[in-house]
Specification:
Length: about 70
């Protein structure tokens, strides 16, 4: 019962003073990390696709010169 009273008091104090809880800060941090990871992976994908496209164009141009 003592633990429940402490937990209730802690919850009331955190709501009363309107502090952001560590869980909310952690959630925000994970969202930032997720967005950053998405941007990095999307940029790598764009680089890979453009590299394959340029490489394909170079190979096609060199094949046209052979004939």
């Amino acid at each position: 019962m003592y633990l429940f009273k402490n937990a209730k008091d802690s919850l009331i104090n955190s709501l009363q003073y309107d502090k952001s809880s560590p869980l909310i800060k952690l959630n925000y941090l994970f969202k930032v990390i997720l967005r950053f990871t998405f941007l990095v992976s999307f940029s790598f994908l764009a680089i890979i696709v453009s590299t394959l496209y340029v490489e394909n164009n170079i190979i096609n141009k060199s094949n046209e010169d052979d004939f």
